[in-house]
Amino acid sequence: MLLEGREPILSPAWSPDGTEVAYVSFETSRPAIYRQNLRTGEREQLTNFKGLNNSPAWSPDGNSMALVLSKDGNPDIYLLNLKSRALTRLTRHFAIDTEPTWMPDGKSLLFTSDRGGRPQIYRYDLRTQKIERVTFEGRYNARARVAQDGRNVALVHQRDGRYHIAVFDLVTDRLTVLTETSLDESPSIAPNGSIVLYATKRGEASILGAVAVDGGVRFSLPAREGSVQEPAWSPYVTP
């Protein structure tokens, strides 16, 4: 156990080398982002701005962290340099921009935005600063997580009023719904890209589900006690 408390703890995110985890804690009565060393237990508070401090996402080189702040008004995507602590605002929109995730090459980010009227996935190019919409199928696509091949994206997709886990192919633009349950969220892709782990419900209990990216295998991972939410698969680190 890394942290225990009565206040919510959200959005765990692994560092690329697998030695640290960033997360959001409400222990100071408002959300703040922390990073914690898994070996020593040492932790550091990275943000504590007024409003939202959420969705930390380490860059592939480990030098920066994308995050969501609302300190300047609406929730937008920011980039925090972990060495200099310089903060750069990436998006500026009256809509809600949230849930950033890095492409494996570190050149762009995917994020969720309702700037088109409904939550959809967009891409931000760090070099050109251009933003383009990625998903168009359905009224709701959110919480994108990219496989290491840079092609498959696991996300939450709404169909017939139910929330499912789907995989979107960035090359063919094909979206494939993988789950049949109705309250699926927080997808996380295995380092080898074969399995998507996600949070779901079994009765009143919050459990983890897993599904192969081709939909061929499905199984559940219920907790021995309590509820489980927001899984984050650790990176593959060469010994």
Write up this protein.
The chain has 239 residues and is an all-beta fold. Helix content is 0%, strand content 48%. The chain has no helices and 20 strands. It has strands at residues 9-14, 20-25, 32-37, 43-47, 53-58, 64-69, 76-81, 87-89, 97-102, 108-113, 120-125, 131-133, 141-146, 152-159, 162-169, 175-177, 185-189, 195-202, 205-212, 218-221. The protein is globular. It starts with 8 loop residues before the first strand and ends in an 18-residue tail after the last strand.
Keywords:
four-stranded antiparallel beta sheet; mainly beta; globular; 239 residues
- Overall body shape: globular
Share of β-strand residues: over 45%
- Strand order, biggest sheet? 1-2-3-4
Helix count from the secondary structure assignment? 0
Rounded to the nearest angstrom, the radius of gyration is 17 Å
Number of DSSP-assigned strands: 20
Order of helices and strands: EEEEEEEEEEEEEEEEEEEE
N-end to C-end Cα span: 23 Å
Largest sheet: 4 strands, antiparallel
Structural class: mainly beta
Kindly report the average pLDDT value: 95
- Give start-end ranges of low-pLDDT stretches: none
Determine the fraction of residues in helical runs and give it as a percent range.
under 10%
